[in-house]
Automatic annotation (TrEMBL):
Catalytic activity: tRNA(Tyr) + L-tyrosine + ATP = L-tyrosyl-tRNA(Tyr) + AMP + diphosphate + H(+)
Gene name linked to the record: tyrS
Protein name per the record: Tyrosine--tRNA ligase
Family label: Belongs to the class-I aminoacyl-tRNA synthetase family. TyrS type 2 subfamily.
Motif ('KMSKS' region): 241-245
InterPro entries: aa-tRNA-synth_I_CS (IPR001412), aa-tRNA-synth_Ic (IPR002305), Rossmann-like_a/b/a_fold (IPR014729), S4_RNA-bd (IPR002942), S4_RNA-bd_sf (IPR036986), Tyr-tRNA-ligase (IPR002307), Tyr-tRNA-ligase_bac-type (IPR024088), Tyr-tRNA-ligase_bac_2 (IPR024108)
RNA-binding S4 domain: residues covered: 349-410
GO cellular component: cytosol
Keywords: Aminoacyl-tRNA synthetase, ATP-binding, Cytoplasm, Ligase, Nucleotide-binding, Protein biosynthesis, RNA-binding
């Protein structure tokens, strides 16, 4: 028999308030009754719950989309619970196939160490380090050895693994599935056993792996963890999930003015999702703002509040104020004070190559698109001719609303 939380502790108003904090913006909470019982027990005994987030450091930098889960962890930390920031140094070497139709190349130990250090430093901009337990799953995965791995694999069937949607699709379409890929959800689930996790968080694409942890805890006689999935943040385009590869992201290490300008560019409708998933303001305050906007308040006022809150979190209050000042200045046709200076050679230079060389676009095709859209200005004059050549001189160049440079071409 495995342990199951019993409702023997009082369900106080504070417990229900904690439940609402947990559910804010979430996609799914499983099982809510179990989590309520855990919250009641913690409230009555004063023993913090153990909240787990496992991350494979596949890239060194994170954007606001990644912080959706981190924000939830911070909210739970503020309720007094312990967050376990689990770095999957062992599982990274397997490679998680979640949501993919092909295997993902495993990382080297050196890549993992570098990425993990940067990732945690950036995550600490959201989390409270004093209430964060940093662990590496190689602590218990390496000692398992071949015998332990076989014993663990015996606790899950191939049929259960094929319940996972991406595995099923690959199997039916004849796309190879390596045996080691079945080990990934098992090892992630075993992390929950090793850490005695009460709640594990993840994106909606991680639901299967999170449920494996719940089942394995039962197998090991532990009270099964609850799972909480968070939605994927929609990017600046208002369509696709936020992603660096799609160029619709806001990096948390971006300059304050760039971050603020991007936040001001989101649609009024998308702004409310950003408030729910990224802001630390109470939902009652956000709901009141919605009512005020519906009654005629300018939504720009609310967007400014959101932008300043996010910029202050990753920079400072002073930086947030300066970002707003720069934004207003640019909106009136002005030029920011901190325009980067660039020196180029090769005059005369075609406008597309000029913009790319100055770092104002990532490619000549992007430069040409901006020219076609009347988004390029040199010394305040719009350039709409893709064959335009820039002669020797020093110019203030603007691309779009936020990118500026003082370029000297010789």
């Amino acid at each position: 028999m495995t342990a199951k939380p019993e409702q023997k502790y009082p369900l106080t108003p504070a417990v229900f308030e904690a439940l609402e904090v947990t559910k804010r913006g979430c996609d799914e909470l499983l099982l809510e009754a179990d989590w309520l019982a855990k919250l009641a027990k913690s409230s009555a005994t004063g023993i913090p719950l153990r909240i787990k987030l496992g991350l494979d450091p596949t890239a060194p930098d994170i954007h606001l989309g990644h912080t959706v889960v981190l924000n939830k962890l911070r909210q739970l930390q503020d309720l007094g619970h312990t967050v376990i920031f689990l770095i999957g140094d062992f599982t990274s070497m397997i490679g998680d196939p979640s949501g993919r139709n092909a295997t993902r190349p495993p990382l080297t130990a050196e890549d993992i160490a570098i990425n993990a250090q940067t990732y945690y430093r950036q995550a600490s901009m959201v989390l409270d380090p004093a209430k964060t337990e940093v662990r590496y799953n190689s602590e218990w995965c390496d000692p398992l050895g071949a015998r332990g791995m076989i014993q663990l694999a015996a606790k899950y069937t191939v049929a259960q693994m094929l319940e996972r949607d991406d595995f099923t699709k690959r199997y039916r379409s004849g796309v190879p599935i390596s045996v080691h890929e079945f080990l990934y959800p098992l090892m992630q689930g075993y992390d929950s056993v090793a850490l005695k996790s009460d709640l594990e968080l993840g994106g909606t694409d991680q639901k299967f792996n999170l449920l494996v942890g719940r089942e394995l805890q039962r197998e090991y006689g532990q009270e099964p963890q609850c799972i909480l999935t968070m939605p994927l943040l929609v990017g600046l385009d208002g369509v696709e999930k936020m992603s660096k590869s799609k160029g619709n992201y806001i990096g948390i290490s971006e300059p304050a003015s760039e971050m603020f300008g991007k936040l001001m560019s989101i649609s009024d409708a998308l702004m409310w999702d950003y408030f729910t998933l990224l802001s630390f303001r109470p939902m009652a305050e956000i709901d009141l703002m919605k009512q005020e906007v519906a009654a005629g308040r300018n939504p720009r006022d609310c967007k400014v509040m959101l932008g300043q809150e996010i910029v202050a979190r990753f920079h400072s209050e002073a930086a947030a104020d300066k970002a707003l000042e720069d934004f207003n200045h640019r909106a009136k046709g002005g030029i920011p004070d901190d325009v980067p200076e660039v020196a180029l050679e090769g005059a005369p230079m075609g406008i597309a190559n000029f913009l790319k060389a100055a770092g104002l676009t990532t490619s000549t095709s992007e430069a040409n698109r901006n020219v076609d859209q009347n988004g390029v200005k040199i010394d305040g004059v719009t350039i709409n001719d893709k064959t335009y050549k820039v002669e020797v001189g020093t110019y203030v160049v603007q691309v779009g609303k936020r990118r500026f440079a003082k370029v000297t071409l010789t």
